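Technical appendix A lists one of the benchmark inputs used to test multi-chain prediction within the project. The record comprises two sequence entries:
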Amino acid sequence: MRNGHADHIARLIEPGRVHRDVYTDPDVFELEMARIFGQAWLFVGHTSQVPQPGDYITTELGRQPVIMVRHRDGGVHVLLNRCTHRGAKVVNERKGNAPRLTCCYHGWSFDTDGRLASVPVPEGCAADFDKSDFSLGRAPRVGEYRGFVFASLAAKGPSLEDHIGPMKGNIDDLVDRAPDGALALDVGMHRYAYNGNWKLQVENVLDSYHVPFGHASTVNKQGVQFARREGDQKGAAVVETEKKQTAASWKDRKSYIAGNGHGWTSNTALDDGKRSSPAFDEYKRVLAEKVGAERAQQILTPRLHNSLIYPNMSIMGLNIHVRVIKPIAVDRTEVTIYPIRLVGAPAAMNFGNIRLLNVTHSAASFVQTDDLESFVRAQKGLRSHATDWVDISRGLGDEEPDRELNATRALATHEMVVRAQYKAWLGYMREAA
Amino acid sequence: MDAPARAPASPGSAGVDRAPIEQFLIHEARLLDSRRFREWMGLFAEDGTYWVPAVPNQESPFDQASLFYDDRDLMRTRVERLEHPRIHVQTPPSRTAHLVGNVLVEEADEAKGEYVVGSTVIMVEYRDDAQRVFAGQQRHWLRRDGASFRIVQKRVDLINCDSAFEAMAVPI
C-alpha cells in the first residue's frame, strides 16, 4: 500500500474476501495504529486491578504505553506513560502502588492524576516554565462499565455507551455470576505472543469452525473434549466419531453480530443438569442465597461462549476470562488473559476456574497452543502470492435477524462475524484521524 | 502438598546420599528429552502435581494463574494430547535437551523417606527452525518408593516466568 487513501483501503475488503495486505502490509498496520487503535474505544483494564489510591497497572493502547492509576479522590486515570520532559517511560513495573510517579531519568515526579508535582533543581527551569503545562498526557476520553475501563485516544467520536451498547448484556452475563455482583481481575494473568497479525487472534475468538480440526488433539476417542468448567465430568461433543465429522450439536451453535465489529457465539452444549462438584454446588448455594433461586438458575444457564468487544478485548463465558489483544507489529502480537475471581464465590470455585484456565489458555495450555500454531502458519502462508485473497465467505447471504436479541444471527461455523469485523475495520480505516 | 518457603539446606539433610536422588533427576530429564511422557507421568505419585508458576515467588497455585499446574488427571490429558497424531503445535515435534545441576538436598526425613531437592534446570528447545532456552530453579518433593522415588510435587520457577511466551507444548 502506498498511501492511506480511502479508495485504496476500500479495495482491500470485498463481500466474501479480504486482501492479504490487511495481514502482511506494514503500511496497513501503521494506518491501523492511527485509525483504529488511535481512535476506537479500547479496553484498558478493570477497576479491581487498582483498588486503592496509588495503585496502578501499566499496559499499552495500540503500541503506546499507558498507566491506569487510582488517584486519592478515587478517580481512575488513564495516563500516557511518557515523561513530559525528555520522553522516558515513567512507570516500568507492570503493577504496583506509589504516592507519586517519578521518572528515573531526571526525577520529574507526577501526582497520580498526572499533574507534575515537582522537578529537581527548579531554579534551572526557563523563566516562563509552568508546571501545569507539563502534566502527563492522558487518554482524551475514558469510560467505565461495571468496572471495565475503556479509553479512546481520540478527543471525538461515538460515546462509550454508543460503542459498547449492545455488548453490555455480555458483560452483565459475566459480572452477574459473582454472588456479590462484582468481578476482580486480581488472580494473575496469562501472557502469550505469536509471530502473526493481531486480527488472526481477534477473528479466532468467535470462530467455531476451527474447533473440531484445530483442536483435534483435545478431543478423546469418543469425540468429546476434556472438561473445561468446574463441576463438569466431561467437555463438549465436538466430533461425531463414526463419520469423523463435526458433531451435530457443534454445528447447531450460533454466532451473533450487533454492530461496531462486536459479536458473540452461543454457549457450548453441555449437560448442565449433571454439573456438580463440592465447589460448584457450594457456589450455586451462595449465589441463590444472594440473588434468589430463580435468578441464580437464570444466571447459571449458559448463553454465551466468547464475546468480542471490537477491536481489542473478548470475554469468555465457558471457562471464564477476559482477553486483551495487543498489536506489536504487522506480524507480531501479544495477548493477555485475565482469570476472573467471582467476588463472593467460595475460594474453591474460584480455584476451579483458575485451574482449568491454566490448561485452556496459558502459553502452555492444551487449547491456546494449537491456535497459536494456526496463527503462525497463517502469517507464513500469507507470504504466498499465489492469490492475493483470503476467503471469508462461509454463510454469505444466510444471515438472519434475531429480533429478540436485537442482533443478526448465523451458524457459528459460518464467517459472518469476520465479515462484520472487516465492516467495522473499514469504517475506522477510511476516515482520517 | 503445600510448598514451603524457600530455605537453605537444613542440617537435617546432612549425611543424605545425594547420588540416587541426582540419578533420579537425571532419569526424569532423560524421559522428557526422549518424549517418553507417559513414563514421565509415571514418576509422579497418585497425589503428585507438576507446577510452573507464572510469577516469581508465587505462593500458591490456588489463588492465581500458573503456566502449568497439573494434577494426575490434567497430566493424563496433557500426555494423551502429546501422543495425539493431530497436535498441530507439535508438528514437527519439539526436540529438547535438559541440563540439571546444582543439586542440593534441602530437607530430608530418612525415617519417612521424604526429601526436598533443589536444582537448577536449563532446557533448550528446538522446533520448526527456532531454538529457545528455558532456565530456572526447580524443586522436587520426593517420596521414597522401593529402590526409587516418586514425585509428590515438581515445581519449576523459570527466570522469565512472567514474560509473554510463544506456545509451550512440552513440560520443562
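Chain B has a mean pLDDT of 94. The CA atoms of residues 89 and 99 of chain B lie 24 Å apart. Comparable benchmark entries are summarised in Table A2.
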